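sorry for the late reply, my laptop died twice this morning and i had to redo everyting from scratch. anyway the thing you sent over, i finally got around to it. pasting the sequence first so we're on the same page, its 549 residues, then the predicted structure underneath. double check i copied it right bc i was rushing
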Amino acid sequence: MDSKALLAIVFSVLLFFLWQHYLAPPPIPIQQKKSTTTASAPQAPPPPPASLGLPTVPKVNLAAQKTWSIGDKLYNMKIISQGARQSSFELLKFRQNLKPDSPPIQLVRNTSYLPLDVQLVYHKELDLSGLDYSSSAPSDEEVQQGQASKSISFKAEIPGKLSLTKTFIVKPDSYAMNMEIRIRNLSKKDFSDRLGISFYFKPYTTGERFNPSRLTYSIHGSNHDVEPKSFDTPGVIPFPINWLAYQDNYFIQAILPPEHSGYQLIPSEINTGTPNGQITRVVYLTNNFDLAPNDSKTFTIGLYNGPKEISALKLAGHDLAASVDYGWFSFLAKPLLVVLRWLYSFTGNYGVAIILLTVMIKIVFWPLTHKSYTSMQKMKKIQPKIQQIREKYKDDREKLNQELMQIYKTYKVNPMGGCLPMLLQIPVFFALYRMLEETVELRHKPFLLWINDLTAPDRLHAGFSVNLPFIGVLNGIPVLTIFMGVTMFIQQKMTPTGGDPTQEKIMLIMPIMFTLFFINFPSGLVLYWFVNNVISIAQQYWINRHAAA
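ok and here's the structure:
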């Protein structure tokens, strides 16, 4: 392999990861565009958030509230009487951390601003959020497996003015549900207004550098993150959309509009004045509605609160499974995830499944890597002849190329034979990287010994913590990562470099760079790279031994 080509490949891979993790700017949201659908007439752009005039809800004394608990083996949702709002949404199969007494993941992260708050835009004197709701449902409503969907209704009214009924339609074994809001005019006069339904979001976890929480919408099959600085821009979230969600790599709270029109989505940010106290607010704003005396109107919204498990997301519809986005290499990452799950079904350990998947990938690419290593061996043997030709015809470029092509033909060597097989493996590595980093099934899943979470960085806790430049806080020894660097060094020493001393020195620096770079990567990815190195060393040893024979 030509030294310049090899270095270009290696440094391109390194720079891609470096840019992706440390230097990449936040994604730029797509501003509102004209919809290509003809399903509905265009609407006027929504007003800026400040002009909505929707009041924020004061902190609620939860201890004084009547509370209803709704759920099954997947989640537990609590609804309080004031405003019939969510005061809690726990995912029962997922813990906040690895401690034995760790509570379940809590999606309602702030008690000052509770989601599903319903308010009127124009009649502010009618405070719907402060109403005390009642329900005939039992205080503990369990959705039994095998049952049909269950409806749990909450009702409140302002005598002589309005009544409001909020109904949750839940399904067994599903994180998806529908929420219906029916408003009835109890007065003797016509009533016109629009409803604002508020959702409040806060990061599910803190301190995870490579697992950012973000607001995302999907339109025409494409996902777009929305930056907080663009919240005040009218139309920052266009319509019609498939879904709008607050999410990180593992969990998601999604709003699923039932129609292509009749609503607007207004994001804003609330600063509570405390460290890490920013709260993302999204108002689902209905169109204007008119109610004659005793008339009513019902609005329906789909909701999903749960893990980013593809099977569960598909059941929710609205193309919500597209929220599991592995980037450019999704076409490889998703099949690899299917195989990984299949291996896990036999082994019961995702670390072992990763090792077996690595072996399978290595077997598939064995002929290519064998060709690559063999080509490098041949190039090393003819390197002295190539140097002679370069020296002899250094002033005649045309003659130099002719002589080089002749020597390649004579010794049956393809100068790119070592490069192309390696290039074909790069997309697989990128796909594995994205898959292992963003697969909730691997979250908190152990391998063995000190590796108790394959999605977390490799750390053997030794009672110390140090803050290093560029790397960040190192609260333990990255043992597996060091082993990975050692195997990479051994592999580099065994790999022919064409006899170029400068290239050999540069390539021996690469294991150090990759070791430092992998320190904050998921341990599952480090395990893959380590096993891949070990197999490559064995393959290179076999090739070198036969080449010397």
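Residues 1-8, 18-51 have pLDDT under 50 and may be disordered.
thats about all i looked at so far, will dig more tmrw
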